[in-house]
């Protein structure tokens, strides 16, 4: 990430005064487990144990945080094997700060990072929330064609 981005971003969207988030800083850093847990809560995602969160965050390839007055109001991460497969995870902006261009800033930083590490034909995946594909399409992501689909399993210990 360049110095300009690390500096405080006073205007998130130049020329769109109604959507300004003044003094939001977007920088490369990993959220603390507690910050991350709060961000997850704000998105109403399942709760995870703080130790598990700590371990997961440590294994990030890249993390970015958006902060306002030292409070984390957004984040985004890249996970994967660092060469063949990358997955974008945890792109979250807390509701009070949504629709001000912060998610776009987070994605821009993620895309800039990927441009420095992803080789030709590397796979970059993500899971979109319902109705959220439009947010990612602007970065060139597309739904899998035809009948190809993604699958997932949320691990429930009691049902194993
Ligand atoms: C998705 C999310 C990160 C977007 O953050 P945000 O800061 O509100 O997004 P921005 O203000 O930067 O919006 C950028 C653009 O994407 C569009 N956009 C935002 N959320 C969108 C969505 N869910 N679907 C389609 N487009 C969306 C905006 O309209 C805007 O477009 P515009 O410039 O043409 O007006 C935020 O809504 C969020 O945290 N949601 C809950 C967690 C979540 O679902 N994360 C994504 C996992 S798939």
Automatic annotation (TrEMBL):
Domain of life, source organism: Bacteria
**Listed Pfam families:** Acetyltransf_7
Domain N-acetyltransferase, chain residue ranges per copy:
24-160
List every stretch annotated Disordered.
1-29
Q: Where is the composition biased (Polar residues)?
A: 1-21
Which GO molecular function annotations are given, in alphabetical order? acyltransferase activity, transferring groups other than amino-acyl groups
Q: Which UniProt keywords apply?
A: Transferase
InterPro entries (alphabetical): Acetyltransferase_Butenolide, Acyl_CoA_acyltransferase, GNAT_dom
Q: Which CDD domains match?
A: NAT_SF
- In its UniProt entry, what is this protein called? Ribosomal-protein-alanine acetyltransferase
Q: Which organism is it from?
A: Microscilla marina ATCC 23134
């Amino acid at each position: 990430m360049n110095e300009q981005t690390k500096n405080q971003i006073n205007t998130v969207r130049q020329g769109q005064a109604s959507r300004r988030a003044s003094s939001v800083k977007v920088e490369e850093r990993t959220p603390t487990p507690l910050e991350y847990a709060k961000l997850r809560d704000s998105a109403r995602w399942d709760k995870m144990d703080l130790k598990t969160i700590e371990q997961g965050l440590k294994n990030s390839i890249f993390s970015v945080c958006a902060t306002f007055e030292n409070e984390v109001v957004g984040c985004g991460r890249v996970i994967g094997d660092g060469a063949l497969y990358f997955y974008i995870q945890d792109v979250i902006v807390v509701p009070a700060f949504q629709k001000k261009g912060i998610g776009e800033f987070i994605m821009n930083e993620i895309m800039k990072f990927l441009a420095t590490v992803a080789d030709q034909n590397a796979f970059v995946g993500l899971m979109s929330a319902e109705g959220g594909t439009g947010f990612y399409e602007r970065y060139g992501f597309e739904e899998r064609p035809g009948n190809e689909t993604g699958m997932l399993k949320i691990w429930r210990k009691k049902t194993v």
